[in-house]
């Protein structure tokens, strides 16, 4: 990986894995045009997760507390997860289009259902930023009922967009890849994040599926919202290069520790 990235921030490098504790916009400004093979990411949805919401109360249960509500000092809100999420998303996708190669794809996690139709808004914005390149919405059926009231949330979406100018990079060995990921498929299992995990943790098998569909070994995968590093770990599993940024020091440290543990286990076995 030959990129001249010069950032004054905490950073971790192991082989072809590169993690930066910084604002993703600062990192993307230093990534050259047409240099990234694939993007998989899980941006803030703008839902104010873990900021006194139901997820905060679930964490109280996971910690074994008897209180009905977790105190505000123990909330773990996600930066840019309020109204500013839409502005950040629109700025980000312009950079995504610039830095990925022709024929490459972006797979972006998003919510499903309502009351805020974020998936619809983001789909249209992606299609516009990629000059009509929106490709598909994949449904991730997470299994048993999630949170909610009238319609319990049981799925999320992955929005797939392609940069035009070349055939879509697609490396599936078969023609039976559906647009619904059902419970247990590809080893993907629902995660109910606990207090020592990222509040919107995704299973690494989810990113691994899309990485293997849209990239080949040694390709460069980028995740501007790295969180606790599940996509970085997936890249280690399938021999991809990885660049990622995470703005929150706590989650960046989780990602670094995750990679260190994974590497030590690889060496052990």
Judged by helices, strands and strand pairing, the structural class is alpha/beta
Biggest sheet strand order reads: 1-2-9-8-3-4-6-5-7
Number of β-strand runs: 9
What is the CATH class name?
Alpha Beta
Helix content: 25-40%
Quote the CATH topology. Answer: Rossmann fold
If classified by CATH, what would the architecture be?
3-Layer(aba) Sandwich
- CATH-assigned homologous superfamily: Vaccinia Virus protein VP39
Indicate the overall shape. globular
Number of domains: 1
Low-pLDDT residue spans: 50-54
How far apart the termini lie comes to 27 Å
Beta-strand percent range: 15-25%
The mean pLDDT is 86
Return Rg in Å.
18 Å
Main beta-sheet strand count, sense and barrel state: 9 strands, mixed
User: What is the ordering of alpha helices and beta strands?
Assistant: EEHEHHEHEEEHEHEH
Q: How many H/I helical runs?
A: 7
Give a verbal description of the structure.
- This protein has 269 residues and is an alpha/beta fold.
- The chain has a single domain (11-254, 261-268), classed as Rossmann fold, CATH 3.40.50.150.
- Helix content is 30%, strand content 19%.
- The chain has helices spanning 24-28, 54-62, 84-99, 118-129, 204-214, 230-237, 249-268; strands spanning 11-14, 17-20, 36-41, 100-110, 134-141, 155-162, 180-181, 220-223, 241-245.
- The chain has a 9-stranded mixed sheet.
- Helix 3 packs parallel to helix 4 (118-129), helix 5 (204-214) packs across helix 6 and helix 6 packs parallel to helix 7 (249-268).
- The longest helix is centred in the C-terminal third of the chain and has 20 residues, at 249-268.
- The chain is globular.
- The protein starts with 10 loop residues before the first strand and ends with a helix.
């Amino acid at each position: 990986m030959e990129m001249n990235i010069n950032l004054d921030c905490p950073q971790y490098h192991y082989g072809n894995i590169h993690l930066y504790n910084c604002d993703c916009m600062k990192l993307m400004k230093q990534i050259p045009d047409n240099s990234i093979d694939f993007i998989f990411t899980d941006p803030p949805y703008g839902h104010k997760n873990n900021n006194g919401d139901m997820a905060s109360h679930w964490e109280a249960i996971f910690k074994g507390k008897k209180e009905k509500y977790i105190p505000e000092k123990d909330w773990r809100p996600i930066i840019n997860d309020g109204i500013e999420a839409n502005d950040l998303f629109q700025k980000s996708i312009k950079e995504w289009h610039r830095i990925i190669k022709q024929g490459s794809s972006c797979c972006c996690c998003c919510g499903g259902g309502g009351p805020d139709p974020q998936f619809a808004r983001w789909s249209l914005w992606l299609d516009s930023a990629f000059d009509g390149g929106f490709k598909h919405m994949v449904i991730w059926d997470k299994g048993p009922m999630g949170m909610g009231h009238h319609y319990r949330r049981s799925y999320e979406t992955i929005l797939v967009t392609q940069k035009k100018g070349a055939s879509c990079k697609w490396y599936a060995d078969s023609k039976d890849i559906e647009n619904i990921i059902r419970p247990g498929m590809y080893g993907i299992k629902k995660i109910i994040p606990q207090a020592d995990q990222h509040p919107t943790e995704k299973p690494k098998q989810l990113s691994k599926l899309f990485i293997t569909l849209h990239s080949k070994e040694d390709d460069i995968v980028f995740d501007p919202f790295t969180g606790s590093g599940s996509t970085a770990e997936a890249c280690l599993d399938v021999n991809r290069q990885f660049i990622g940024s995470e703005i929150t020091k706590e989650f960046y440290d989780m990602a670094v520790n995750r990679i260190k543990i994974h590497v030590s286990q690889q060496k052990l076995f």
